[in-house]
Specification:
The complex is a heterodimer of chains A (320) and B (271). With 320 residues, chain A is mostly helical. Chain A is 78% helix and 0% strand. In chain A, α5 crosses α8, α6 packs across α8 and α10 packs parallel to α11. Chain B is mainly α and 271 residues long. Chain B has a single domain, classed as MetI-like (MetI-like fold, Orthogonal Bundle), CATH 1.10.3720. The longest helix of chain B has 37 residues. Classes of the chains: A mainly alpha (320), B mainly alpha (271). The interface between A and B is large, with 47 and 41 residues.
Chain lengths: 320, 271
């Protein structure tokens, strides 16, 4: 078999295995609840009937391994059970919010990826100049700031002082795309600041790494123009690490979204998760946790696979 | 001392910030004008002689809560980081020195934990176990120790192949002795820089959890929680939630400046 395909299959297999193990951990987590789940969640003075109904709803009368199988098959088929807090279908609660979270994440990605790759390249080419230092200090401070600090600074500036953008990103299905984008601009900007800082620093490091190689020096000594060196020699080889950086930061974005959603009261999956954790609404926590984990693991996997594909050395070894 | 004199300006600023925070945290009861929970005025009062930074959403003195918050937040993050380093380096060193199936087993388990987003993992554990200081510390320490493990193992692997470790082995020294007397002193420079980075991460992580209402529980003051409690003020044009958030940012920037200098020193580029 071709080695690169074999490598990819192995990586995909590991990713799949991880998701299975994670689902087991999420499932066992509920089993570990001290005492009886029903009594813990419902409280001391629950009547016999409510406890029975609760046990039935969570299928607690079945043995654990059967319950795990039923839970996982239901989950794969899109049936996440019912919320403990209001008895509604979890899939109904999650579907719309998940789309909102994706919308926010994709908008951020559309701003952040081109911006940070460009800034990273520029910082690498003009390294140790004033431009590089200013960028380095700015990104270092953005990394040190908690997300909500950036969020509140943006709110103070844009919604309190100038009143251009709303401080609450309230969106619903009847809004037009432009209205939606206007509403989520501040949360998207907050996320952009955080993600760009990480992405740009890693891009800079990756490109400097390539620029330090012997073949770049050789090209320079041959007197090839700078632009040509960058396009023909440096860019193809830095593609693999840069793609890796981008995909890894998208995974980070999926999680970073949680806090920003809470700040802007955005109706997304992250806010639902946080609400459900404080209400201890376990079916919702399980479902949204598994979705977040699945997205995170798949993006990490994609990062690895894409950088394998983009690596010229791995591609060429196909012929051997 | 000589090192300190030659240090760059950024590192000195960082050092001042960190020292300032530590002093405030240690002497909190002496410095703070009021106690942590005392109500001194109306809700969200402006800055005045009575309360230097104004009052919070319950009319408590913001300055005093900020000072006590420094104590709670920094202590919590410090204890958690210590715990994470203790377990992470011990496991990492054992894996490096022993090798074989122990190394494989540890590394696979750590791989799986690291494949799971930290914040989501912590939220799931807190939803099942409820939020208390003990659970908070243990959960975050375990999640964070995976990163420490990776570094400790990698560093120890490099040291383990050195002659002096071989000599100690031939002398018949035990695992514990090799780890503590041969590997630890040589791994120290990398571990110290990492400690700063991990502290920042843990500190921001706890602040985020508190901000989500799942960290330290009120009436204890902590910076993340203070931002959450006063978040409503911002729409009235009162900037109170920005103050504790800025305090968090201030300390992490300080620690990062020191870490940067340390990494610079460790990479040998200072000449």
């Amino acid at each position: 078999m071709k080695p690169v395909i074999w490598l990819i299959l192995r990586r995909a297999g590991f990713g799949f295995l991880t998701i299975i193990v994670i689902s087991l951990i999420i499932f066992i987590g509920v089993e570990l609840l001290p005492g009886d789940v029903a009594e813990t969640v419902l409280g001391q003075n629950a009547t016999q009937e409510t406890v029975e109904a609760f046990r039935k709803a969570l299928k607690l009368e079945l043995p654990p391994h059967v319950r795990y199988r039923v839970w996982l098959t239901d989950f794969v088929q899109g049936d996440f059970g019912r919320s403990l807090a209001n008895g509604r279908e979890v899939s109904g609660l999650i579907g719309w919010r998940f789309a909102n979270t994706l919308f926010l994440a994709l908008t951020t990605a559309a701003i952040a990826i081109p911006l940070s790759v460009m800034l990273g390249m520029m910082a690498a080419f003009y390294r140790n100049t004033l431009f590089d230092k200013v960028i380095s200090i700015t990104t270092l401070s953005f990394i040190s700031f908690p997300e909500f600090f950036i969020a509140y600074i943006l709110i103070t500036l844009f919604s309190v002082q100038f009143n251009i953008f709303p401080s609450m990103a309230n969106i619903n299905e009847s809004m037009t795309l432009v209205a939606k984008l206007h509403a989520i601009l501040l949360p998207a900007l907050t996320l952009t600041c955080v993600v760009t800082a990480h992405m740009m620093r890693q891009t800079r490091a990756a490109i400097i790494n390539v620029l330090a190689s012997a073949y770049i020096e050789m090209a320079e000594l041959k007197g090839i123009r700078r632009l040509r060196i960058i396009m023909r020699h440096a860019f193809p080889n830095s593609l693999s690490p840069v793609i890796n950086v981008v995909a890894l930061n998208l995974a980070y974005l999926i999680v970073g979204v949680v806090i920003v959603e809470v700040v802007f009261v955005y109706p997304g999956l992250g806010q639902l998760l946080v609400d459900s954790v404080s209400k201890r609404d376990i079916p919702v926590v399980q479902a949204s946790g598994l979705i977040f984990a699945g997205a995170y693991i798949s993006l990490n996997m994609m990062a690895d696979i894409l950088s394998m594909l983009a690596n010229p050395r791995l591609r060429q070894s196909q012929t051997s | 001392m000589n090192l300190l004199i030659k240090s760059p300006l950024s590192a000195r600023i960082g050092l001042c910030i960190v020292l300032f925070n530590i002093i405030v945290a240690i002497f909190a009861p002496l410095i703070a004008p009021y106690s942590e929970t005392e109500v001194v005025g109306d809700v969200w009062e402006q800055m005045s002689g009575n309360s230097l930074l104004g009052t919070d959403h319950l009319g408590r003195d913001l300055m005093s809560r900020l000072i006590f918050g420094a104590r709670n937040t920094i202590a919590l993050a410090f204890i958690t980081t210590m715990l994470s380093f203790l377990s992470g380096t011990t496991l990492g060193f054992v894996a490096a020195v022993k090798g074989g199936w122990i190394d494989n087993l540890f590394s696979r388990i750590i791989d799986i934990i690291m494949a799971f987003p930290t914040l989501i993992f912590a939220l799931m554990i807190l939803s099942v176990m409820g939020s208390s200081v003990m659970i908070l510390i243990v959960t975050i320490a375990i999640l964070d120790s995976t990163r420490v493990y990776r570094l400790a193992r990698a560093v120890a692997m490099d040291i383990e192949v050195m002659d002096f470790v071989e000599v100690a082995r031939l002398r018949g020294e035990g695992l514990w002795w090799i780890m503590r007397r041969e590997i630890l002193p040589n791994a120290m420079p990398s571990l110290v820089a990492e400690f700063g980075l991990r502290f920042c991460f843990v500190f921001l992580f706890i602040a985020s959890l508190s901000f989500l209402g799942l960290g330290l529980q009120p009436p204890l003051a902590d910076w993340g929680g203070m931002v959450r409690e006063n978040a409503g003020a911002i729409t009235f044009g009162i900037f109170i939630p920005l103050i504790p958030a800025a305090a968090i940012a201030f300390l992490t920037v300080g620690v990062n400046l020191i870490v940067d200098w340390f990494l610079h020193l460790a990479s040998g580029m200072h000449n």
